[in-house]
Every structure is written in C-alpha cells, then in structure tokens.
Amino acid sequence: MASPPQQELRRRSMIAAAATTAAIGTVPAALAQSSAETPPEAAKATTLKVSFTVNGKPRDLELDPRTTLLDALREGMNLTGTKKGCDHGQCGACTVLLDGRRINSCLTLAVMHPGADITTVEGLGTPDRLHPMQAAFVKHDGYQCGYCTPGQICSAVAVLAEIEAGIPSHVTTDLNAKPQLTGAELRERMSGNICRCGAYSNIVDAITEVAGSKA
Amino acid sequence: MSDKIHVARRHDSALKHVTGQALYIDDMPEPPGTLHAALVLSKVACGRLMRLDADAAKTMPGVVAVLGPHDIPGRNDIAAIGKNEPLFALDRVEFAGQTLAMVVAETLDAARAAAAKVVVEIEAGEPILDIATALARESYVQAPATILRGDPDAALAAAPHRLTAEFSVGGQEHFYLESQIAFALPGEDGDITVHSSTQHPTEVQHVCARVLGWDFNRVTAVVRRLGGGFGGKESNATWVAAAAAIAANHTGRPVKLRLPREVDMVTTGKRHGFDYRYTVGFDSEGRVLALDAVLAADAGWSLDMTPGVVTRALTHTDNAYWIPHFRAVGYACRTHKQSNTAFRGFGGPQGVVVMEDALDRIAHHLGRDPVEVRALNFYAEGRDETPYGQTVDENHLERCWAEVKAGGELERRRAEIDAFNAANPVLKRGLGLFPLKFGISFNLPHMNQAGALVHVYTDGSIRLNHGGTEMGQGLFIKVAQVVAEVFQVDVDRIRPSATSTAEVPNTSPTAASTGSDLNGWAAWDAANTIRSRMVAYAAEHFGVAETDIEFADGTVRIARPGSNQVLTFGELAKLCWLGRVSLSATGYYKTPKIHWDPVSMRGRPFFYFSFGAAMAEVAIDTLTGESRVLRADLVQDCGRSLNPAIDLGQIEGAFVQGQGWLTCEELWWDASGRLRTAGPSTYKIPGSRDVPPVFNVTLLDNAPSREATIFRSKAVGEPPLMLATAVWTALKDAIGAVGSRRTPVRLDAPATPERVLAAVERARRESRTAAP
C-alpha cells in the first residue's frame, strides 16, 4: 500500500509538523515563536509529486523538484543506509540500484524517476537475512569504518549484473566476447566507489566469492 | 588456547555496516525543532577583517541566528594545546577557509543560502604560502627543536664520504568518507550533549565548555562511531562541535553542523608537508657515521598539534638505523594555510623518509646495493641506542627483512626487473625495500592513560565502555575480546557502548596507535576487578578455595571434593547480586616505563617499538610519467595479535593510504592561497585500481611483545602506513633505470605523473650530458 506523503517520517520536515503542534512540551518556546513569524519554507516552494517503488514498497512523495534522489531517500523516507560522502557524484557512497542499474543518487533528481524500481542497501537484506553480497562482505572483512560500504555493496551487485549482461568495461580486451570475471575487471568496475580505509582487496575478494557461487 | 583472543573476529558493527543499519551522526533521527548550521568562510588567505555584515542574511527566510565572535559567551579559542586559535576570526584572517561566522536556520538549504549573503570585507595582506618563504622570514609557530647526539660536525668533517641533498614531501588530506559533523542538543538547565564524530571526546567536552564559559560537567560528548578519522578528527572535530554547541546554547534548540566536502577540505588541517636538507657522512662500505638534517614542517596558520608532529618526525628520522653522530632540527613553519594536524603516523612518515633518501644516495655513490647498505646500518646489539637515548629492544629488523626478501623473492625479481628494463625503452620497472621501526606511545607521557567501565548484569550479559573511539579500526571488538577472555564468555555477550565523557572521563584521544593497548588494559582491569569479586564470593558461598573456581565456556566450575558444580556465568552473576556483590567496576591503565624531557629531547618516549618491512614493485611509463604499483610484500610485527583479521585490514589499508600520500594525493593552493584541490574530482585518493594486484601481507609470526602489553599484542594503526615508503623508493629505482644511473634520483612526493616525468627527463638529460 502506498502511504500518503504526510505520514512519512521526514527527518528534516519534522520542523513543520512540530510547528503546527507547538504545544509539545519539549519544543522550546523559541521554536514556536520563530515558526510563527516565518512560515515554513515548504509552503512557499514549488513542489512536484513523484511515485516510485523503493525496496519493494510503493512511495508517493511531494518534493521540491531540486531534491536529489539521495536527499529524498535520506530525508524524505528515512532510508539513511545510503550515505552522503561528497554530494558531487565522485565518491560512490550514495550508490543505489535504479531499475537494476547502479546510479549515484546524489547526481540525479528524485522527480526524474517516476515509476522507477529503486533498491537501497536496506532493500538488499537485513542482519537476519543477508543478501549474498552482504554476507560475503562480512566474511571477507570488506570494510573498516563502514561509511562507504552501502555504496560498495550496491555497486558490487550491479557490477555482477553488468558482467552477466555482457557490458564491457575500460579494461575488457575483447568487446565481442562476454567480459571475464577477472580481478582487473572487478577493480576497474568498482573504481567509482572510493574507500579511504583501503579495504579494496577484501572487497574484491568478497565480490569474487559471490561471482564464483553464481557461476 | 583461548578462542576469545588471538583469533579473527568480525568487526563489532559488521552486520550493521553491510545492511546500512549502522547509525552515523547524520543518520540519527532529528528531534523536533532541530536547526541546521552553515559556516561563513574567508576567501582571503591573510588580512584584516574590516567588515562582516549579516543584515541581509538575518532577514533570509528560515534564518534563526547569525553568530560571530561576539556571540561566544566564553573564550573564542579552540586551541588543542596552544592558545588563541579563534573559532570565529575577530580581526586577523589567517587562511583562506577560516571560519568567520555561522548561520543557524530552520533548514540546511536556508542556512547555506543565508551564509552566502553575509558580506565580508577583508583588507588583504601578503600571505606566506610555502616553507621556504616561512624559513626565510623566520615565521614559526614554535621555536625550532633539536635532537643531538655526539658531534655531527666533527664526524661529518672526518667522514671518508659526505653527501648533501634536499627534497620535499607534500601534505595529505584525511578524506574520511564521513565529513566533519556535530549535533548539539540542549538538555536540563541548558546543559549540552554533543554527538561529535571525534577521536577525542574529552577535548570536545573541554573546548565546548571553554567557548561557552562553563564547567566541564555541563557538556557531555558522545560518539558511537566515526566514518573514518585517520587523525583528522582530533582538533578538527573539536571546533566543529564547539560551533554546534554555541548555536545550540544560543537558540535553545538542537543544532546540527555538518561540513559539505568542499567546506571540510578548505577549513580543516591536514598532514604536514615537509622540506628537507641533510648532510650524511659514511665510510666506504656505506656505514653511516653522521647525519645533520633539517626538517621543516608546514604547520599552517596555528600551533594545533604541530609540536607533537615535529617531535615524532625527529624521533623517527633515524628510522631503523644506527647513526652514531646525529643532529636533526625541526622547524615548525607558520604559513597562511589550514592548520595542519594529526594524520596517521603523526610526523613519523615524514621522519623516516630522510634516511631512506640518504641510503639510496649512499648506495648510488658507492655503487653498492641499496638493500645491503640498508641492512648494514640496522640497529643491532652494541649499536642499539636511538639518538634520543632510548634503547632499541626486542629488535625484529633482521627477521622482518629476511622474511620480506624471501617472501618477495628478491634476487629472482631483481634480475627479472633488470632484464625487463634492458629490453623495454618505454616502460621501466623498479623495486624498493623499506625497513620500519616505529615507537608506540604518545610522545607526551601524561597522555598514556585510559579508563574503562564494565557492568555485569544479573543475566550474565555485559556492557562495556571505555575512552577509545571506534572509527573502523576494530577497537571495540578487540577490547570486547579482552573482556570476553577475562570472563571466559562468548564475545557476543558483551555489548560495546558509545564512547561518552559521562561514562569514562578525562580520556586521551584514540590516536598514536595506542587505542587497543591503552583501552584493552583498562577494560581488562575493570573486568578483572569484577571477576575477582565474583571468585571471592563464590569461594565463600560454596566453601571452597578461590583456586577451585574456574571460568570456562560461559560457565563457572566449582571444584569441590566429590563434585564439580557448574553454573552458567549468568547464574553466578545473579548469585553475586543476591549476595550483595558489586558487579560494576571502573578500570584504569597507565603505560609504564615511559618518560620524556621535551627540553633536552631525551628519554624513553615509547613503551616499545613496532617493526616491519616492505618490498614494492612499480612500473612507470616514461612517456607520460604514469606509475603503477604492481606488487607489494609486507611483513608487520603486531606482537601476538589480538585479532589477526582486523590487523591484516589495518596493514593493507594503511599501506594504501601511505601509497596515496607518496604518489597520487596532491594538495594544491593557488597563488592567493586558496586550496583548489577541494573535492574528490581534484584530489585523488587511491581507488580500487591503485591497490597492488599482488598484495602479500603477513603478520610477523611468533613474536609476542616482550613488554607487558595487553596479552602481548602490539599496536597496528600507524606503523604499516610507513611501509608504503617502499613504493617511493621503487619509483626512484625505476626512474634511475631510464638513464645511465650516473646521478642519483631526486623525487619529491607526491610522485605524481608530472613529477615522475620531470625526474625521467632529468635522468635522460643527465645521462646524455654524461655520455662522451
């Protein structure tokens, strides 16, 4: 069932909700005062509606059209597993799957994707029911601080699908043959996801294991 | 044989990391009324602040406050160890990126939009932007420091051979994937709880209290995890938290301050770049007789932690080598740039490169093998005192060296590479070896202390808290393993909890590789106190000797004549509670044996040394200057590792980070002093393609620490970063293969393609002019 937008937990629009119920004891007086003086910005801004599926659930959002998919996920849907590392499409921490392909969610606007099927790290699996890629990352210690990990895992899932679909990469030697599952292919294809802790070797090992079990 | 320690255990947050359920500060639910902050920064590197007009910003929609230096109720000073490092510049502007003011608004967008409307006028001065200029003008943040032994001047004059050389290394951006963030929440009486992505919660507490003019007990700093630290979240995290705290106090509402990547990069300090000049004297075999070195660090605009960095650089200039007559002078140059700070290695990496450069030049000068010349100079019996007076104990240099040479098949590959270079005019390969000795402990003795707090509940579950912060290095699981060992319970029974100044006070930063050494012992102490109480009570209760009580496999065995009663650990905990035994204890540890005189620069600053060795192979393209690391073989001494899986990850990651520092990571300021490499598009950290495709990492086997470290383990955070020095050495070797090897190769770091290409051109030119 689609949940109406006003019932969504919005981390950064809770201010508007709080302003309408300013009697909440914990809300400082300054809040009620300033909110009364300044109408919530959202009321003035132009918004657009967009509907898509996230992790199998239909979502209907009403957003400032400039909202990135990343902010829509994190702020609008409370899906904070997807991380903001640079907000410029250069670090890969925000990688999600959109209609089965990976995308830097900070580089695309949420309203550009009506009807899309979006999968975030939360949609791949849970601690009780890990996706094989998540399990392999645990087994091979494919992280340290964990901040780039959701993006790495989404990217890794898509990499295997790309190889499976015969999509070549910069290091594929024969463009007419099916790309091989080599270390060089994996390192090349994962190069958009940076990891400052330097867990790259273990990440490649994890992906290799999942690829091997698929073959 | 324990199954709790010395075994691979996954990271405490492993399942949360891979499912996106690990909460970082920006992921925490925001209470109603949360405000967002944005900073107003100087775009000028040096000058007088003439006007800061926030009138337009204040009327922007959603803006709640604009705060500047006059809105700081306490002291406008965020200095870590010095004084007068303002949070918001008052009159002088000291670097491009300095914080001038802060906008607090209902939304992040509103805060950032308003920050852009603050009008700033600065009367620009002439900035000092490099070390050479700072040295010429004697612009320092502290007086020069010197380590001296013997008579280097006389020894150099008498030496059969002498060489003088200069080179430089660049700084390094930490580039933790989670940028700086703090979330300050006002509570009872306005007291502040600040969630800070910090390696130093106690400093956050102190500095928040300082800027607010409060007692420390009104501020609680909390951190569950960091999305990377690497030294960049010590003093850098502190001022971010202080800014959030001021805003929360001013508005009475929760305030979050998260720095966008570019703002993070232009405001926060980095690894210190260094310029070097040295003269080394040696005999005909290549034995070093004397060294006279100048190490000049780019401190940036303020003192920050530069004194410690310079001291560590000077105490690591000897690296693995016995140098009878020694002088190293460290300058801390004041420039109009970000205030450089701690970064994994903390001056150590900038110290060890000096002798590596010198030994390559000595080998070149004498026509000898640089690998052999290095080994000839290792610390050994009878030649085992460092220039600052500490004896090199438990020396594993020869072992590490032998293992890395054997594992890396040195002789075979040397011949193979030489043959390749003879056959290939364009691509050249090179080999580099590096031995490591790194001192473990904070250079300041008083910082080597730690506390812990352990609770055993009546169901046998255990809550663990200590002063160390979890930033991905696996500290929480290592310390939990220690506690599991004490109680002989499964590590899953132990719940590590967020580091908090309210639980364990007066802590040191999680830094200097000391996290598990210090906090491991403190947690052991707390757990052992509780265990001793449980044993005493059980002995009394069951009427047996204390020695008849044995903890194993989550149970407690009471050995009595004729019976062996077994209780679960939880049953004994409950029994103790019924018997009114306290099941909660604090633990404390201070590192023994260490002392340091900062005036004479002598003492025993380090509890022990950690050793290692590396061999790296690179290839360069002599037409473009591009380089690749083809293979790395590393041996690292971790004592008897608490958790070999975690330690392997630390070694690999540190090496990759060191490789980045020495090769692809270039910080670049324009002529006006603005940092133009302020994002991942212009600042290149190593990616998945840069890791050596052949990467053999081993822990030195059967090397339990001789000192009484926690279960004979050794620190691992920083030492392996320096192993990447082998990459730099290998690049010089490859460049040398271009020409006739008549002149030694100078290669400044980072060895970017431009620098490699320039060095290749020099080598070509020099071999042409040298030809008949």
Automatic annotation (TrEMBL), chain A:
Limits of the 2Fe-2S ferredoxin-type domain: 48-124
Coiled coil: none
Keywords, alphabetical: Iron, Metal-binding, Oxidoreductase, Signal
Pfam families per UniProt: Fer2 (PF00111), Fer2_2 (PF01799)
Keyword match Transmembrane helix: no
Single GO MF descriptor: carboxylate reductase activity
InterPro entries assigned to the protein according to its UniProt record, in alphabetical order: 2Fe-2S-bd, 2Fe-2S-bd_dom_sf, 2Fe-2S_ferredoxin-like_sf, 2Fe-2S_ferredoxin-type, 2Fe2S_fd_BS, Aldehyde_Oxdr_Iron-Sulfur, Beta-grasp_dom_sf, TAT_signal
Leader sequence residues: 1-32
The protein's enzyme class: oxidoreductase
The EC number(s) this enzyme carries: 1.2.99.6
Tagged with keyword Signal: yes
Protein name: Aldehyde dehydrogenase iron-sulfur subunit
Gene that this polypeptide is encoded by: paoA
From TrEMBL, chain B:
Protein keywords: Molybdenum, Oxidoreductase
InterPro entries reported in the protein's UniProt record: Ald_Oxase/Xan_DH_a/b, Ald_Oxase/Xan_DH_a/b_sf, Ald_Oxase/xanthine_DH-like, AldOxase/xan_DH_MoCoBD1, AldOxase/xan_DH_MoCoBD2, AldOxase/xan_DH_Mopterin-bd_sf, Xanthine_DH_Mopterin-bd_su
Recorded coiled-coil stretches: none
SUPFAM superfamilies: CO dehydrogenase molybdoprotein N-domain-like, Molybdenum cofactor-binding domain
EC number from the UniProt entry: 1.17.1.4
Domain Aldehyde oxidase/xanthine dehydrogenase a/b hammerhead: 19-126
Pfam families, sorted: Ald_Xan_dh_C, MoCoBD_1, MoCoBD_2
Gene3D superfamilies noted in UniProt: Aldehyde oxidase/xanthine dehydrogenase, a/b hammerhead, Aldehyde oxidase/xanthine dehydrogenase, molybdopterin binding domain
Keyword NADP: no
GO molecular function: xanthine dehydrogenase activity
Protein name stated in the entry: Xanthine dehydrogenase molybdopterin binding subunit
Organism listed in the record: Reyranella aquatilis
